[in-house]
Amino acid sequence: MSELVRISFDSERPTVSGRDLHETLQVKTPYDKWFPRMCHYGFVEGLDFSTFLSESNGGRPAIEHQLTMDMAKEICMIQRSAIGRKCRQYFLDLEKAWNSPEAIMARALQFADSQLALMRSKNTELADTVAIQNQQIVEMKPKVSYYDVVLNCKDLITISVIAKDFGKSARWMNHYLHDKKIQFKQGDIWLLYQKYAEKGYTSTKTHNYAGSDGEQHIKPHTYWTQKGRLFIYDLLKADGIIPLIEQEMEEAYV
């Protein structure tokens, strides 16, 4: 079906722009005078049409209207013109296609797909939140039960700082710890496996930031304690990887 009048499918039912219909019907009366006159035929705002302002391009925003198919068909009949009859038939054919079993099924499947995608997204967010909260709970347990010199250390550091000690990148270090089955990635954050999460190696904190949508969001970050730093040191040293400072000391005695 060729498009005689542009149709909007943004709402639950197809609608048509009053200004587009006015142009297609080739009405000579200006739109801002013609549309109020059409409303005298008993059309009700909020039921038969909606009103909004167009986006301004530097000038004054124009008043626009979005019409239901029923209103558009009646306006076509009121015009008593060949183009009016043609537009009315076009709307009738469109409604027939819209209400066909195939179209109804297609919309139902599309809605089901969108709901499934939404549920999957929410489940992923929930899994991320639960994993982070579980690690935070585990990290807090030692502080509640006893004081440990290392756990009480205030100096939390990022994996980037530790990696730099060994002349490595944060990416390299994260993948090294992942290959060693020390940590896993949950969403955008690296978390320790349960075996190591209870040892006080890390501290997971959240930070607020303003998103591009203007809303405040929360992003978690994993920091390493000094105890965790020594753990990584022992792990790397066992594989023959030592910090740069120790490499320099060895070279000095050669």
Query: What is the global morphology?
Result: elongated
Q: Compute the number of helices.
A: 10
Structural class, from secondary structure content? alpha+beta
Q: What share of the residues lie within helices?
A: 40-55%
Low-confidence stretches: 142-151
What is the CA–CA distance across the termini?
Answer: 85 Å
Element order: H for helix, E for strand: EEHHEEHHHHHEEHEEHH
Number of domains: 2
Q: What's the alpha carbon Rg, rounded to whole Å?
A: 33 Å
Give the biggest beta sheet. 4 strands, antiparallel
Summed over residues and divided by their number, the pLDDT gives a mean of 81
What is the tally of beta strands? 8
Strand content: 15-25%
Strand arrangement within the widest β-sheet reads: 1-2-4-3
SSE layout:
Elements: E1 7-8, E2 15-17, H1 18-24, H2 31-39, E3 49-53, E4 63-68, H3 69-79, H4 82-98, H5 101-145, H6 159-165, H7 170-179, E5 183-186, E6 189-192, H8 194-197, E7 202-210, E8 216-224, H9 226-238, H10 244-252
Antiparallel strand pairs: 1-2, 2-4, 3-4, 5-6, 7-8
Helix pairs in contact: 3-4, 6-7
Domain AntA/AntB antirepressor: 16-81
Domain Antirepressor protein C-terminal: 135-237
GO molecular function: DNA binding
Could you characterize the architecture of this molecule?
By secondary structure, this protein is an alpha+beta fold. The chain folds into two domains: 93 residues, no CATH class; 112 residues, no CATH class. Helices cover 52% and strands 17% of the residues. It contains ten helices and eight strands. The strands form three sheets. It has a four-stranded antiparallel beta sheet with strand order 1-2-4-3. It has a two-stranded antiparallel sheet with strand order 5-6. The protein has a two-stranded antiparallel sheet with strand order 7-8. The longest helix has 45 residues. It is elongated. About 4% of the residues have low confidence.
